[in-house]
Specification:
α10 packs parallel to α12. The chain is mainly α and about 350 residues long. The relative contact order is 0.06.
Length: about 350
């Protein structure tokens, strides 16, 4: 629940608190929340600058960097990372500027795959042969990228140990998502796996990532920062796309696919995570599209039935908006006490 100054003005008008109390409370809350990420001009510039630096060292890396050689890339990246860590430490601990300081730590972690690539290129040590240039890391699925992803995850976890900054989970989750694809050729060999096997690994890897995100969610307080969001997002990407792209199946399996996506929508209510309803809704919509173009393509009443269903869903949405808290409490009461204790809390 977000509180705005107008809410305190309303409380004053209702005689719940005095104007002096409202002013004191608002100033205290503003001071307490000053270091939390907010959608304002200053924080947008912080994040924009950080994303530009990360992009320059990742997606937009030019081939000219290959001229430095493996050792040159490793040492130059290490110097960059050290400078970001030292500056971030100064901002985080000495100047109490948590957001820019945390972003500099995140940039340093994001440089990890480039540093490991340089070290591997210098030593010639690859898990499955030379994978190509660093730019290919973001294009091609290869088992030789595995150590770069693993190193980034370890670096991110070490950084989180000392700096409790939620955005540090972004490079960790991103590397986990890439690992969900690159681990298949590493486990089964570069030429002995097929597309279905890759999708199966992606599905189970994504499910595991979602479980990890859930464990993080119930052990952290969202008011201190959302440490689980990126893990949920990339875990759902790996799980949902693996599930969706598995190919042709019979009608019962397609219906089961729809039920799984409906389950994701239900989880969005229980876990209070909107990202679940996004993927779940896409899956349900895809199943309805299959019904329209394959099963009921010649049925006159099917569009009318879908129209009625859509209006009914909108109606349910309005009921939920008016009674969301009561519905959530009702669903929680249906669960056993032992299960209810494992739900994340706001």
């Amino acid at each position: 629940m977000k509180i705005y100054q107008e809410d305190l003005d309303w409380a004053v008008s209702q005689g719940l608190i005095t104007a002096e109390q409202a002013n004191t409370l608002w100033n205290a809350l503003s001071t307490r929340h000053s270091q939390r990420p907010q959608f304002n001009f200053v924080n947008v510039t912080f994040y924009l600058g950080a994303l530009i630096v990360i992009s320059a060292m990742t997606w937009f890396m030019t081939l000219a960097w290959e001229s430095f050689g493996g050792s040159g890339i490793f040492f130059l990246t290490s110097i960059y990372a050290l400078c970001f860590v030292l500056t971030g430490s100064n901002l985080w601990w000495r100047q109490e500027m948590k957001i820019p300081g945390g972003l500099l730590f995140t940039i340093a972690v994001s440089l990890t795959p480039l540093a490991i690539y340089g070290l591997q290129r210098a030593t010639g040590f690859w898990t499955q042969g030379n994978p190509g240039t660093y730019r290919d890391f973001y294009i091609w699925i290869k088992g030789s990228w595995f150590l770069m992803e693993l190193g980034t995850i370890i670096a991110g976890l070490v950084a989180l140990k000392f700096v409790r900054f939620p955005f540090l989970t972004a490079p960790i989750a991103f590397s986990l998502y890439f690992m969900s694809m690159d681990i298949t050729p590493l486990l089964f060999g570069e030429k002995t796996y097929n597309w279905q096997l890759r999708l199966l690994v992606s599905l189970w890897f994504g499910l595991g990532c979602i479980v990890v995100a859930y464990l993080v969610d119930i052990r952290t307080r969202r008011r201190d920062g959302d440490f689980a969001f990126w893990l949920y997002l990339f875990g759902l990407l790996a799980f949902w796309f693996g599930l969706t792209l598995m190919g042709d199946s019979n009608e019962f399996q397609k219906f089961l696919y729809c039920l799984i996506n409906l389950g994701l929508i239900l989880l969005s209510v229980l876990l209070k995570r909107k990202v679940f309803i996004v993927f779940g809704s896409l899956g349900v919509f895809g199943y309805l599209g299959h019904l329209a173009y394959s099963i009921f393509q010649n049925a006159i009443l099917f569009p009318f039935a879908l129209t009625f269903l859509g209006i009914f869903i909108i109606y349910l949405g309005t009921l939920y908006q008016r009674n969301s808290r009561n519905i959530e409490l009702f669903l929680e009461r249906l669960l056993p006490d032992t299960v209810r204790g494992f739900l994340p809390r706001e």
